[in-house]
Amino acid sequence: MSFQTTDSKKEEFRKYLEKSGVIDQLTRVLVGLYEEPEKPSNAIDFVKRYLGSPADIDVETLRSEYEALKERNSYLEREVAELKDEVTKLRGE
Q: How would you write the pLDDT of the chain (93 residues) with one tens digit per residue?
């Protein structure tokens, strides 16, 4: 019984990948790599470049920058709300 469940899950996932275009895109990438006359030393970087992702991005740096910007945004949103309250009080509303 468990075997059928596993097979059906695999088939469902395959259909999902096919429907979302992942299978076609991966096929194009692999064909592109296959047809490359001079094989790259790093196939993963080739795939990333082929899919449009820059190969030299430091994900951890981006995450820390994102977190810092999120904190800064929260701070500025609070400051704007406080200033709006202050303006409302000064207007006597």
A: 556 688 899 999 999 999 999 999 999 999 999 999 999 999 988 888 888 876 677 888 999 999 999 999 999 999 999 999 999 999 986
d(CA 75, CA 69): 10
65: exposed, middle or buried (C-beta count within 10 Å: 0-12, 13-18, 19+)? exposed
Q: What pTM was estimated for this model as a whole?
A: 0.50
Range of the domain at 78: 58-92
Do 6 and 20 sit in the same domain of this protein?
Answer: yes
Same domain, 16 and 37: yes
